[in-house]
Give the backbone structure.
Amino acid sequence: MPSATLLGQSLLSGVFIGALYGLLGLGLSLSWGYLRLINLAHFALAFLAAYLTYQLVDVGDWHPVAALAAIVPAFFVLGVAMQVFVHRFAIGEFASLLVTFGVTVIIESLIQWIWTADFRRLQLDHGALSWRLGPLFIPIVEAAMLLVTLALTCGTWAMLRFTYIGKAMRASAEDPDMAAAFGVDHRRLALLLSGLAAAFAGVAGAFIALIYTLFPAQIFTWVGVIFAVVILGGLGNPLGALIAGLVVGVSESLTMALTEPAWAPLVSFSLLIFVLVLRPDRI
Amino acid sequence: MARDCRHTVAGTSRSLRLALAGLALAALVLVPTWRTDAAPSGQPVRIGSTLALTGPLAATSLIHKIVGEIYVERLNKKDGLLGRPVEWVLKDDQSKADLARTLYEQLVTVDKVDLIIGPYATGGILSAMSVAQRYNKILIHHTFGIPTLAKYEMHFPAWSLGPTPEQTFPNTLFDALANSAKPPKTVAIVTSKFPSVHFMSVGARETAKKRGLQEVLWLEWEFGNRDFGPIASRVKDANPDFLWIGAIGLEGVMLLDAAKKIDYVPPGHFHLYPAPGPTAKAPEAKGALAATIFEQHPPFTNNPVAAEFVKEFNERAAKAGLPDNSVETQAAASFVAWQLLEAAVTATKSLDDKALGQWLKTNRVDTIIGRLRFDGANNYGDDLMRVKQLQDGKWVVVWPREYAAPGARLMMQ
Amino acid sequence: MHRPVKAAAFALVILALAAVPALRPPAFYESFLFLVYLWVALATSWAILSGFSGYFSFGHGAFYGAGVYTTATLASRFDVPVAWTWLAAGVAAAILGLVVGAVVFRVRRLRGELFALLTLAVTFVVATVVLNTRIDGGPGVFLAGVDAPRIYGSASGSLYVFALAIAAATLAVAWLVQYSRLGRGLFAISDDEDVAETMGVPTYRFKLAALGVSCFLAGVAGGIHAVFVGYVTVAETFSLTVPLFVVLMSVLGGARHWLGPCLGAAFIVALNYAFVGGDWAVVGRAIIGATLILVILFLPHGLVGTAVSAWRRAHPAKAAPAAGTASMPAPARSEAARQPVMLRCENVHLSFRGVRALAGVTMEVQGGEILGLVGPNGSGKSTLVNVISGYYRPQAGRVLLGDDDLLTKGGHRIASLGVARTYQIPRPFSRLTVAENVALAAMFGAARLDRISAWHESGRWLAFVGLAERHAALPSQLNLHQRKFLELARALAARPRLILLDEVLSGLTPSETAHALELIRSIRAGGATIVFIEHNMRAVLEISDRLVVLNHGEVIAEGEPRAVIREPEVVTAYLGSAHA
């Protein structure tokens, strides 16, 4: 029988990775839900941000927060530029999959060209510090990531729900013509949303750099699980993406704590299948 | 008016598209013609190979590419092979086994290269080996992890693991530990399910049992696992004297990192095939043990060829922007492969695969990792794997003693 | 070109390709083409379900992988002859697909992204099972000494032929499916599945059949590929490559045409191969990405989509279906006329999450009559139509058509028993032409015509409602009035005994309304029974034989129209009570 500490610690671990799933899924969910853009390049952007963070912090000796402060606005602009491109060429939902795959491959090549395909790892002086909470340990960087994720997710949710911009976005997603008739400028909203999504990718990337190891082909290893999280959470639903991320993360962690870690995907994805088949209305 | 507007927009977007298309076309035309200058004169000896230059296995590809370039340049500076210049025909198999097969067929049946040399990584090498077998070519290859799968009589492994590394290497490691100041009594074996890694971990498990070490934990995770928290917690709970991490790349560092975050440092830990550079930089990896066939310190660098190679590789790697510039298993295995090829061609004065194969099977070849032979089971000879340890931020061989760096010995925390 | 000619041309091309190894080309060409054929088979098999029906699957890797591992296991561990393992690979993949489909396709909500998610999850589950059981266990499976049966002298030549065979078979199946009932049904599902079911398309069976065929072909392709690589691992087999690339190839080529994925696959494989030079591998990869972007910018509808619309522009006039006479054709089932009771609803109850929509509706429709069904907004009229046509399943009650209890039958069975309906807001199949929309009803409704007869039949009904001129238009090119009449033509082409007309008049001008009433009368004259739901009370009174009034999900009055609307309860329902 595993100890309570083991279970508690694994639960925490699951919450943290789940939060990262949610954070990575957030931008993807927004652009898929509101812009009907299946943005594979979201992952490439996240890893580009991760490599930039690595470069600034490890080589340039910046503080991680300073790196984040530089990356977020830059990525916002990048996101806006991408949307200008998408709009200009009137790229549809499935064509977007092809175009963004092309962008992904280009960014992957760029990363490999600059940083080589070899493993990179950002070594922080205090990266492995933890707070102690009774028998449990709370790693500081992960805790910061959880807080940032919660803030961004709730902020996005509140923006969509309460502000004029958010309401306009939802209206525009449901019925563009009707929304346009009420004076909603879909194009501007799309630029804003796309910029936000890319900025979120930037934030997620910075945390990937702080916590994980970097390697260009990793761009594709996250696609499956994040797609699952985004769809499970409901397209365009920020809270849903976070909750779905936590469910997948925690169920994987607990499986790893209790049984063979290699079986972890079986548990989380079987769970997902059962939920889908038995309670499709709850999604 | 409105109509005119639309016209203009459509017009610009078309010219924009054309400009983009033009750029791409220019790239298409320019790139293939932009090649490095070939050898000066004579009918070159063409040696073909593929490497996983892109895709999921690309991490170490640049090392192999640099080594190949260094070696070919060296050959051409001397007398080439058989007095002829050497040309290396290198293709990118994109980390795909099926593409590797197709490319080797292209090298053999269309490009009609004189000799082929293997890629790295198990899947790619097996693909190349099946092609070599069909066309009776010898195949010297770099880093092939599972000797029992290599059934072809004319394959020659540069990474000399011996026919049963899953038994011999864990024995080497446990010998080293038994001779340390604090021999472990309990061991936890955790491993990635990466094929060539997993098979060694299974062997380590059996070896530990045979040697009377108590196994307190056995765990496997899927290659590509992201969350090492629960695994670290379980290792902490099991509290072993020694931790075997069947890891490739940085999985071991991620596990140690997760362990440190729950305030746990395993007393001793071994990493099978770690990425040496980033691992050396990680403070939590202090004292890590790993497997190697070559490190750039004496006695390995007593060999002048090795010393010269180390110097040249260090420079080139730095120029290419590799995170780690030192020569270790990957670069050394790659170098040895070329050494084997050169030795065989020079000795037989021939490019005939049969003659070369025959010679390699019956002779011993001096390389920078030692004397290699190919007369054992599946053409494997001795297990030349050593144990190295991360001491003061540097990897040094600590076992067997005759290969240890001067003054270095296994430290236990 | 006629179909037999096309088929012969197709067979000739395949035979010519099959003869290539006899010329003893360098093995490289065979292996390169092998990869092209492999991806043609995978992408085309994917499109049979996902491209045609719009159920985008991210799980093709699971079915391909099931094939890979079936062959690997049987051939390396049990020494089964390779050709048999390929058959087994197809069967194993098909069984996996059918099990998944049998569960998933029963759940109405699992469409679109949710279906994609589910199939993706299946891939993860299958991969984990293979990785952690004896099927693989971790070290990968090495197919030592396993070779394809020799057709030509060389191994690569023989494998080439088998890959060509599976690619050709997949293309042939896709072609046949596209122009068969199955294909028509799948295209209808892709546009509007609920309407398709109501019009008689057995959606569940069709999707399952398409998935089964698709998986079988992918499984065989996987089995052949296992022999080609010789060493299979979980990481490579179940990676994102297969599901991602089949989608990319199909989108690039055009997923709604049998030839599209084939062209997309050939293009992408060749493109990938164009940059295998060692010196510029990384730059080459970037160029691949850029090329994909450019192609989709120039050809936003895919290769085949663009080609087809170009061809259509060059040859605008496709032969119209024979117009026939504009008069009412002979009744489908004249014996149906003047049956005492055609349809009987008994005590039908239906609630949505506690909100009562139908509270014990009991009513009859007599054979040959026009029954007006009226009531205020939200009284349950459209809900009742949805129950009769099989879309909703009530919690209690019976709906009898003759002796058949409709509630025990799926929507498509109800259609084939002779019930057809129109939608208040027209729901045509948006990517089928007007004529195809109508022909589909004739194929799957009570008429059950074959493709050719259905085509001619569509001409008659389009002429009848006055849309013959617009037969080649897409529904989006019609105005509202025309779309309403298209709804009517579709319902009529099914040759139903009972037609449920849900507010066909709303939004029409007075002259259009008069024309519509004219048509409805002549439909009845042809022998069909009509339930006429309408807000336009004047029209109802003008045309109905009898009236049923619904309020709050209950029948509050029925009988002779002019008498019924004077009943106090009806007046209250419409105008509010005097005390209010």
About this structure: The radius of gyration of chain C is 28 Å. Chain C touches chain B through 50 residues (CB under 8 Å). DSSP finds 23 helices and twelve strands in chain C.
